[in-house]
Write a structure and sequence with these properties.
The protein has about 375 residues and is an alpha+beta fold. It is built from nine helices and 20 strands. The chain has one domain: Rossmann fold. The strands form three sheets. It has a twelve-stranded mixed sheet with strand order 1-18-17-14-13-4-8-7-5-6-3-2, with helices on both faces.
């Protein structure tokens, strides 16, 4: 079965492993001041060099496992690693490491610890080093050592947590510039949960807390519906808004609300002749323990640890009613499940062998099946 998307006028984890304790910053002395005195001590030192080295600063913490020098792999290639959170996807991580040429992986977060160090370096393997940077304050986004680590990274991955911190700490800063320079250099970028949430050309910032589908459908202008754009310029995602933990947290309704709001931004709530002729933005929701790997040609491969799917949400028409304080009314929203056997291209918007296909509408603050078929 093949599903043809409507013409859209050019639309192109939180870690579950235990975190080790960060060691405090230390002032290293020159090497000739001390050396191991026994074979056992020399062996122990060699083992320690493979363990995470933790450094702390008021603005950030960082850990490095593996070779601290710049690996400079022979080749990296572009790729987007879009993970739904709730657990890691080993096959997707291996693909991401391959895109990075087995070089230096940098994990960014604004909470948590070093849980990715052991997982990526030992369980996934094949990398020169893994460095985690936890941002404690916005000032870290201008720290020279942080920026140097991003410039040298062969692959950058944004962990889960709170996307409001990512937007507050990074948007409009040298970190944002570094992320986009990384993409322009043809290197892979990934994100899970909150990290995934900020990868689209449009995003839900959660600056006023999260919101459920029920609340968003009941009032699409609820103050918690905080949307933004112009953060990460990922190829193929300019006209996409992403969401994570998709089916586990019943987020279809809120994603449809986000799409309705984005489509009519800058237009009167009662609509007028300035509104676009048809929807231009797509939604991409990803289930837990599931990831979409996007190749440079736009082709997408879905991987899942627990039979999850990615969900393409495609409005076929603009909202019938989008009024402050009143339930959203919109018809003809296609919801296409993308599984491991699906062939989907994010640039051409072709879908072959969808894993699921339905059409819904929003009315009276809830979603119901739309009798018209896609």
């Amino acid at each position: 079965m093949r599903y043809s998307l409507p013409d859209t006028s050019g639309v192109p984890s939180r870690r579950t492993h235990p975190a080790s304790v960060a060691t405090p910053a230390v002032a290293w002395q020159p090497a000739n001041h001390w050396r191991p005195r026994s074979a056992w001590a020399r062996f122990a030192l060699g083992v320690a060099l493979l363990a995470p080295i933790g450094l702390s600063a008021a603005d950030y913490q960082t850990w490095i496992t593996g070779n601290p020098d710049d690996a400079r792999p022979a080749a990296t290639r572009p790729g987007l690693f879009l993970s739904g959170g709730g657990g890691d996807v080993a096959a997707a991580w291996r693909w991401f490491v391959s895109c990075a040429g087995g070089g230096d992986i940098v994990v960014l977060r604004a909470s948590g610890g070093d849980g990715y160090q052991d997982y990526v370096f030992r369980e996934i393997g094949g990398v020169d080093s893994v460095q985690t940077i936890v941002f404690n304050q916005p000032a870290a986004a201008r720290d020279p050592q942080v920026l140097a680590a991003l410039a040298a990274a062969d692959g950058i991955f944004m962990a889960g947590g709170d996307q409001a911190k990512y937007i507050t700490f990074w948007r409009g800063t040298p970190v944002m510039d570094a992320l986009n320079a990384h993409l322009r250099a043809g290197k892979p970028l990934g994100g899970t949960s909150a990290g995934l949430a900020v990868m689209g050309g449009h995003y839900f910032s959660a600056l006023k807390d999260t919101i459920t589908s029920e609340a968003a459908l009941r009032d699409p202008f609820d103050e918690r519906v905080t949307l933004g754009q112009d953060f990460i310029a990922a190829p193929g995602l300019a006209r996409v808004i992403t969401d994570s933990h998709f089916m586990a947290r019943a987020r279809l309704g809120r994603l449809i609300t986000f799409l309705a709001r984005i489509e009519t931004s800058g237009v009167s709530e009662k609509f007028d002749s300035a509104r676009p002729a048809r929807p231009q933005i797509l939604g991409l929701g990803i289930d837990e323990t599931t990831a979409a790997c996007v190749e440079p040609d736009g082709s997408v491969q879905i991987h899942s640890e627990k039979k999850g799917l990615a969900w393409l949400v495609v409005p076929s028409q603009l909202p019938e009613k989008l009024v402050r304080g009143q339930p959203l009314a919109v018809r003809g929203v296609d919801v296409i499940g993308l599984g491991p056997e699906t062939r989907f291209n994010l640039l051409t918007l072709t879908v072959d062998r969808p894993a699921a296909l339905r059409r819904v509408r929003a009315e009276s603050g809830r979603l119901v099946e739309d009798p018209s078929r896609p």
